[in-house]
Amino acid sequence: MLETKPATRTRLLAARTSTPGAERGRADLETWKALRAFLIESVDEGATIAAYRPFGAEPGATLEPELPERLTVVYKVLLPVLLPDNDLAWEAVGPLGTQEEGADSPFGGPAAGGAGPDGENGGPSNARLAPEAVGEVAAVIVPGLAVSHDGMRLGRGGGSYDRALARVGPGVPVVALLRDDEFGVPVPAEPHDRPVTGVVTPGRGFVSLR
What pTM value is reported for the model? Predict the structure, then answer.
């Protein structure tokens, strides 16, 4: 019998929070390395990508610098803003703050020093972008609690990302960050659900679902 979505959420959230912090830290670093390798190969430098800021026990939450700031070394990054109707607007985040000249960036090599989406180095932009802005990005990195082998993603139940992903252009990669045992979990599909095109886990690296 297929487990219900609420039951699956409860089980997976409990497993995440029970994982020791040191283990999560090691997993997050491996996840970042695999995500970085995928992006370098698949997305042009300077392109705009939609991402998010992991929190709690989510994959990537232990990273320092945090995930969005790491991404801004190479890309223009949009972060979601939850609206009252559960839709997502977007805000641009500036590049990784001040680094010493010659310091290595999270992408390897010297830290980039170009201007960010708001035209300044460091700091978030205050410009609020409409929900439709996600339709112009070159890649989307999404949170999730599980992804099935056919790409169906289990979120937290609000439906915000399903609405956002409906606006993403054809052929744009949509990648979920997961723990190893969260990939391949059966996820019941509903008419509004939007699949992802790939996942990144610490043990498997990037897995294409196209």
Answer: 0.86
